[in-house]
Write a structure and sequence with these properties.
This protein is mainly α. Helix content is about 80%, strand content about 0%.
């Protein structure tokens, strides 16, 4: 992919994301004219519409951009280092691993500290990611589909344990049920700022790895012969996945299928060069989650549904398609 085409593609995706961002501010159960949106920042008068924009929709839209980008880039890294088209934070147990430790920390310590919530989510993501990727390294004979099945079983185990803990604590169940479905509702900038450093470090690591990953995808033996440090690349990629997926779950809960689907879309647009795949995936992830969040406001009359329900609705058929296509190529 040429630089001119790559920059043109990124500019187009940025423009579409900006349109979706504007739509996220104006569209909803309470429609807000674009003029009122502009006044909320330039001529704030404390009206109901402007308060909705500044305290509810703006943080929600910003969080959708950041979480969507983080999950998409995490999916890119997982698919690259495992060379598995079905890899993703939601299928390898990382999302619910982060959710489980966050719920455990809240249950045992009886606190909703943002710092504790973020740290525990990152620990859970690290544990789940290392467990599944370690399984793949220990059993190289496992096919990609079988490895995904192992990750899915781990994800179900973590999800069941999480629900069991919440049943024991009814108060936690009431406060966290929307979070566990994957939701942007009720999130504020304080939570985002608490987790943002982890996400920025993860994204920076991903961008630094973009060139080595182009060599890594040729095969470990080829990459090693070309002077690449395979172990260091894998460890750095896993660290970035943990920071990105764990941070995203800490903010919005376990939103599914963004990390699985977006990397395929980015590769189809860029031709597979990770120097362009990763930034394009970040833009596409933001665009997808913004669009899904807007759709979640209109599925039911006078009621919003969690954005994770929308992404799962469209992501499940995509997973079935990928699994079928992968099976044919084995």
């Amino acid at each position: 992919m040429t630089k001119s085409r790559g920059w043109s593609l990124l500019a187009l995706l940025a423009a579409l994301t900006a349109l979706a961002f504007a739509g996220s501010l104006t569209l909803g159960i309470v429609p807000v004219p674009l003029r009122s949106v502009l006044d909320a920042f330039g001529a704030f008068d404390g009206s109901r519409e402007q308060l909705i924009i500044r305290t509810v929709r703006l943080p929600r839209a910003v969080i959708a951009v950041i979480v969507g980008s983080a999950l998409a880039v995490a999916g890119c890294l997982m698919q690259a280092i495992s060379r598995n088209a079905l890899a993703g934070p939601e299928l390898f147990g990382i999302n619910y691993g982060a959710a489980l430790t966050a719920v455990l920390a809240s249950f045992w310590l009886g606190t909703s500290s943002l710092r504790l919530f973020a740290a525990s989510s990152l620990l859970g993501a690290a544990f789940a990611g290392l467990l599944v990727l370690g399984l793949g390294a220990a059993r190289p004979s496992l096919s990609p589909v079988k490895l995904v099945l192992a990750g899915s079983m781990l994800n179900l185990l973590f999800a069941s344990l999480t629900q069991g803990i919440l049943i024991l604590n009814e108060q936690s169940l009431d406060t966290m049920r929307f979070w566990l479905a994957g939701s942007l509702t009720g999130r504020d900038m304080a939570l985002l700022l608490q987790v943002l450093p982890y996400l920025l470090v993860g994204l920076l690591i991903a961008l630094v790895l973009s060139h080595p990953l182009n060599v890594f995808k040729l095969g470990e033996e080829v990459a090693r012969n070309l002077g690449q440090r395979i172990g260091a690349i894998r460890i750095a990629a896993i660290a970035a996945v943990v920071l990105l997926a764990g941070g995203a779950v800490a903010i919005a809960g376990p939103i599914g299928f963004v990390g699985l689907a977006v990397p395929h879309m980015a590769r189809s647009l860029t031709g597979g060069d990770y120097r362009w795949v990763i930034p394009c995936a970040a833009a596409l992830g933001a665009l997808l989650l913004l669009s899904a969040d807007i759709a979640a406001r209109f599925v039911l009359p006078d009621r919003e549904i969690p954005v994770g329900v929308v992404t799962a609705f469209f992501g499940a058929p995509f997973l079935i398609y990928l699994a079928g296509r992968k099976e044919k190529s084995l």
